[in-house]
Sequence to fold (421 residues):
Amino acid sequence: MTDAHHDHTEPPEDVALRVKALESLLLEKGLIDPVAMDALIDTYEHHIGPRNGAQVVAKAWADPEYRRRLLEDATAAIAELGFSGVQGEDMVVVENTPAVHNVTVCTLCSCYPWPTLGLPPAWYKSAPYRSRIVIDPRGVLAEFGLNIAADREVRVWDSSAELRYLVLPERPDGTAGWTEEQLATLVTRDSMIGTGLALAPAAA
Amino acid sequence: MNGIHDLGGMHGLGPVAPPASEPVFHAEWERRVFALFPSLFVGGYFNVDEFRHAIERMAPSEYLESSYYEHWLHAFETLLVEKGVISTEELHGQVKPTPPTQPVTVLTPELVQPVVLGGASARTTHGEPGRFQQGDQVRTRNLNPTGHTRLPRYARGKLGTIERVQGLFVTPDTAAHGLGEQPQQVYAVRFSARELWGSDSPDSICIDLWDSYLEAV
Fold:
């Protein structure tokens, strides 16, 4: 991102100082536990990320019965794989088809399915993406290198409530007989946001 | 409120320009701000709707100029002072901090995994029965509240179709202002790009909306 977007600008010194002042005060009052904070940071920096969602997608591609459960009750089907909790309490999975390409956004803030995708990238939370994906989805997708046929519907899901959305991308051709582990290597974060497609086998 | 956060449909905010890759956190202070959210949420000092509304109340220029985790920091400072958990003088080191007067709930290390995996669903088992079914035509109301709402400006007074019935959820418009959960039915309402933007494309936008945002057609 460029500096003009201010999505992850170099923080002015006073921001880091403000954080330190607040954390020190809360600690002195006995309201927070820094060891628990370290564990939270480690969890979301190293253990929860889009590889979780890739497992869900790969299983849906490999197992039609799982795919059916996933589209019917995404929260329960995703929990079968052990992924649940904060910012994924109530999940919806939307499936790409030859007729419809789905893409997700939160225009009002930055809602995103943490248990399956981890914390959102800066661009997802940025003013350019949030403002434009609803009014010019094809223009935004083109910036990701994705050109959708003129007669195919682009369906944008603005997650304005407490449902969190995961896109089930189309399974790439040339993957017949692949295991779930192999299939998962084709599933990118952006393909589950809807700003990308699953990788073709040769590109994985 | 018709605030700067309600960005859907605005022009002039630049290209998206996604980088090939980026770290989860860009600075140590971002890590600390991130971890304060679950800590303070579990402490019960605010709910998620109050948190979002605190960000929406930022000065518009400050909102656009500052980064995501600065928004969070702003919300913590605002809400903790407003709710009397801390004072501005304490925050600025002008007075010695006083201990809390009520018993407090602290997010301790052993609670981290249960909290992360359990979450805090806004879904409820009770509430106002919904008025609409899948496939029903609805029109969004032309609401312009000065408080918190999740009906984006770009979708007010627009004709749509109930795409999914999502279930009963806490109403943010009241929960953000100490007026209770008042659960109602939420629907994914599908609007054509033609209806919202006068576009000729076959595209559509689905938005999750509470029953009270809608009227029958």
About this structure: The longest strand of chain B covers residues 159-169.
